[in-house]
Amino acid sequence: MSAYVTTIATMITIQAIAVCGLNVIVGYAGQISLGHAAFFGIGAYAAALLATKAGLSFWMGLPLVICISGLIGLLLGLPSIRVREDFLAITTIGINFIVEALFRYVPFFGGALGIGGIPRIVLFGIRMKGEAFLLLSAGFLAICMMLSWWLTRSWASLACYAIREDESAASTLGISPVRFKLFAFVIGTAMAGLAGSLYAHYMQFISAGDFSFPVSVGFLSMLVLGGMGTLWGPLIGTIILGILPEAFRSLVDYRIFLYTLLLLLMIRFQPGGLLGEGSAARRVLAPLLRGGRR
Amino acid sequence: MLLEVRDLHISYGDIQAVCGVGFHLEEGELVSIIGANGAGKTSILQSIMGIVSTKKGSVIFKGREISGLASHERARIGIRMVPERSRVFPRLTVYENLLAGAYGLRKKIDVEKRTEWLYSVFPVLKERSSQLGHTLSGGEQQQLAIARALISEPELLLVDEVSMGLMPKLVDEVFEVLRQLNKEQGLSILLVEQNVVASLAISTRGYVLETGTCAIQGDAAELADNPRVKEVYLGH
Ligand SMILES: Nc1ncnc2c1ncn2[C@@H]1O[C@H](COP(=O)(O)OP(=O)(O)OP(=O)(O)O)[C@@H](O)[C@H]1O
Ligand SMILES: [Mg+2]
After folding, report:
1. What is the ipTM of this complex?
2. What pTM was estimated for this model as a whole?
3. How far is B236 from chain A (nearest CA, A)?
């Protein structure tokens, strides 16, 4: 595999992990989030700081990174309990801008220069890069997808679906909207944190711009394109939107515009996504896609 | 006394929907609330369930003031509602809708037993068990909403216009189910109905709501004979 292809494939797997997390929040629990890149960034910065300042290895730092992202996700998920859907969209955008600004202007986070010199991941004495790193991140992606699959079969996901469909009807059945919205935010942002940690150790250099609002729009576009609430949707959407810009390099400046356009078109014409209920792809692929049907 | 509602006031912005309603329900009773469109019947049920907040007044369930509880907490202590227009979960299957209702029941065996029983009461739900909620007909959705509320063995069932959109034969069947639940299993039911004759026929007592307060109350048979009830709600 050429280095170029390996790089793109690695970026796709890392992003797919973040989109998997977004899927838990948006697809399973029905809570819109336009600030997912903030949690991707929180994971990346936490990993970078733990590695460069505290000298922890990727593996030692990982549980901490996941906990930090999930905890901050829990705190920042609190508004979802109070505010209505359209307001939640605005709130999450705000969170994204605030987090990005903190990274950019607080010296502790490296300021405008970002954080460099993040060590590579070492596994079995091997320093992970190239194809080895791709395999590692694909492994993590597989774990996240298995977790998503397992979630779709649990009581917790049924509770999430019920809240997504009709919050007050769900609450009259004894399902606590607060608990399960927060549950979804914690799982979803923890996955974003994992993706961020992989990203930091892969790039070895991160800066605030990597986690800006357009990145969040990108994540959401990938999810909507692939199919919210489906098991394979996050992966499919990320692959398509990960490859397309490479094929149309000249359009790279218009990426955010194209993502937004795509989002609007999908919502207008195929709201379930490429793999959603009643989509053309689903009818053809139906036998392959059992599991995570919703 | 299982349920007591005192001096209930509900308003939406400037609209006073309910002002000063009080009533009670003994254990094992089936009580009807009658009233014109917009009289505030749904609002009352929703405030007992905790979905709309009350401006003033208290709701006492099994001797305990529950006005401060969230609706899922009220559900946990045994209150369930069949909401107006059923509100089944559209993109969950019939079976998943039932499971969502069984959320508090952790034991799998209980869930299976209850599901089997409900399937025997509403056979159409068994036939449609893997169909999505929104693909059911209106009447089937009503049956699903009842089953979803019953699966957890509630102590108090709030029923909001369950006969809406059901064909006459099914209305009879549903009322028969409610009557049996009440008579044979001692389930306490608070029934809101446009179908006044049918609801009074299975009720112990009833209340008539007018302009946001309880205007008339009494035994079901008495109410069915009351000249004012006859004139306004029975049309003769
Ligand atoms: N969410 C709301 N916002 C504003 N006004 C409301 C709301 N819900 C109910 N109302 C008003 O409160 C009053 C009582 O409504 P409610 O639904 O309780 O009546 P109802 O007795 O159930 O009527 P129906 O027999 O038509 O179901 C009505 O005037 C209605 O317009
Ligand atoms: Mg009503």
Report:
1. 0.91
2. 0.86
3. 37
